Structure formats: C-alpha cells, structure tokens
Amino acid sequence: MNDDALGGYVAGMTWGWSGGGRGTWTGPAADRSMDLMVERLGVTWTALTFFALQDTPQSTNIDFRDAPTPTDDEVRAAIRAAHARGLQVCLKPVVNVRNGTWRAHISFFDVDVVCEPTWGQWFAAYTGFMTHYARIAADEGVAMLCVGCELVQSDGREHEWRALVAAVRAEYDGLVTYNCDKYQEGNVRWWDAVDVVASSGYYPADDWEAQLDRIEAVVRREGKPFLFLEAGCPSREGSSALPHDWNLAGAPSGAAQADWYAVAFDACARRDWVGGFLLWDWPTPLYDEATAAANDDYCPYGKPAERVVREAYARAVAAGAPR
C-alpha cells in the first residue's frame, strides 16, 4: 500500500459540524474551539465538515448557497485558521435532507421514469455542489477533499461516481477520498477512482477485531491508504454497544465513552494498514468545560476520553504510523 500519500499517521478530529453552521465558523468562539482541539488532543489533522440541504430524499436541488451552510468566506477562514495552527485539512462538504431523513436513504429509480426525479438529475446537482468546494480546496491548498459521506443508496452508481471524481480532479489536485458508511467498505466498487479508502468506524466495542478483519481484506485488495474518516462514541451508558446511535437513551457516562475509545485505538494499533482517524466530533462553539460530565454527545472535550485520544495520538505520531 502507498501509505506515503498521507505523510504519516492522521491524528485528526472533525471540526465545525455540531453547533456549527453559518455564522459560527469565525470569531472568538471558533478560535477558542480550534485552539482547544489542538491543545487537548494533539491533533495533526482536522476534517472541516459542514452540510448543505436538499428537501427530501428524492429532491434534485442542493441548496449549498443558503444557510445553514457556512458561507464561502467562512469556509476559507476556517481552512486558513487550521493551517495557521499547523494542521492538515480534509474538507468535507456533506449533503443532508431537510426533512430529517438520513442521507443514506437518498435514492431514485434504477431505471429513469418520465416525470420522476432521476439519479442523473441528482448527480448533476451534486457535482455542482462538490466542484464548487473543490475549487475552494484548490485555492486554499487543502490536503484532502472528501467527495461524499455515507450515501449508501448511491454507492452502487459506479458510473456516476467515477464521473463525479473526474470532475473534482479537473478542479483540484490534492488527495480525494469517499467516506462510506460502516459495514459498507466492501460494497464500493470504485475505490480505484479515489486516493484513500475511508469509512465511518462506529463499531461496537466487542466487535472491532471482526470488523477490522473484514475491512482489511478490502484494503489489501485495493492497495490504497485507509482512514476512519469518522469514528466516535457518545458519552452515554450503552453507547459502546451502539456507537452510531446518537438517539440512544442512557445517562451521561464519560467512562463508557473512554472505554470505547481505548478498545478502538488498541485494536487499530495492531493493524499497520489503519492510517489514522478523523474522529467525530468537536463543535463550535464548545460547551462549558464545567458541564462536560452532563454532556452525553460525541465530543470528548473535558471528559475522560479526551486523555485516551491524546495519549493514543501521541503514541501513533511518535511511532510514525502508518508503517
């Protein structure tokens, strides 16, 4: 595998999604959030992540020029702020559905039907969305661009995805990746079109070894670097068994989150093909650290998991992984 493409281990955190959006990506609170992310976790990368909305899973318009999507000036300012702190940047524009349906369910008929929305119409809109940010990524010297996130129903549209990646590469010459959903790594048949294989690592604490065995077969087959472009666990009782369920009922538990992180990092440290993480997630603005014990979301700020992440990243960066 060509691990040199990543320039060493990716010790990263997602920034800007939770509590973010237009109007929150610049200013004192944003600066404080990014400073504390670097200071507390020792990150070397960040995924600057935001969303644009389409109305329903069958809509073919993506409203990326409107709120809550950060303005282009805000996106550029956040990239520059990250670079000023010595961070490599993965720019990650994401499409979400306004009516609350998870984006994995965006879908259209396999065969076009007159008067019905089509995959072709959606990909045309999505290509316009993505190439817009590819130009910003190119202008600002971003290290990596993620061209999609957890769009499960579209993963089989190989022709359309290859065309989209080609359109992105016409605007941007950095690393290109796609963030497939958990359990879907083997279902994407166009990994050869991108530079980095990436997925969401929300696996139960007692299932990491089995899932890594499964993913390893894909990574070895493709011969490309691999990242968990998302991974994390809420600080909530029961979440270590269902880390992807942000609505799971349970009392706040920093210990549950820290235990999940310890297991995940330990399992991945034994796999020389895991090139790192861009964890989920670090909001702007941050909550007050004094309230961290009552916060049951994914952010590790002020919680026991913060130390687990910092120490795991320090070890991995010192070791120069991936090897």
CATH homologous superfamily grouping: Glycosidases
Helix percent band: 25-40%
The CATH architecture can be given as Alpha-Beta Barrel
The backbone outline, from C-alpha atoms, is: globular
Write down the domain tally: 1
The name CATH uses for the topology is: TIM Barrel
Helix-strand sequence: EHEHEHEHEEHEHEH
Kindly provide the radius of gyration, computed on alpha-carbon positions and rounded to a whole number of angstroms: 19 Å
| Gap from first CA to last CA | 10 Å
The pLDDT mean sits at 96
- According to CATH, what is the class? Alpha Beta
How many β strands by DSSP? 8
Strand content: 15-25%
What low-confidence regions span 5 or more consecutive residues with pLDDT below 50? none
Put simply, the count of helices is 7
Neighbour order of strands in the largest sheet: 1-2-3-4-5-6-7-8
What class, by secondary structure content? alpha/beta
The major beta sheet can be summarized as:
8 strands, parallel, barrel
Please tell me about this protein's structure.
This protein is of the alpha/beta class and about 325 residues long. Helix content is about 35%, strand content about 20%. The chain has one domain (about 5-320): TIM Barrel (Alpha-Beta Barrel). β7, α6 (about 255-270) and β8 (about 275-280) form a beta-alpha-beta unit. The mean pLDDT is about 95.
Show the helix and strand layout.
Blueprint: E1 10-15, H1 28-41, E2 45-54, H2 72-84, E3 88-97, H3 119-140, E4 144-149, H4 158-169, E5 175-180, E6 196-201, H5 208-222, E7 226-231, H6 254-269, E8 274-282, H7 304-319
Parallel strand pairs: 1-2, 1-8, 2-3, 3-4, 4-5, 5-6, 6-7, 7-8
Helix pairs in contact: 3-4, 6-7
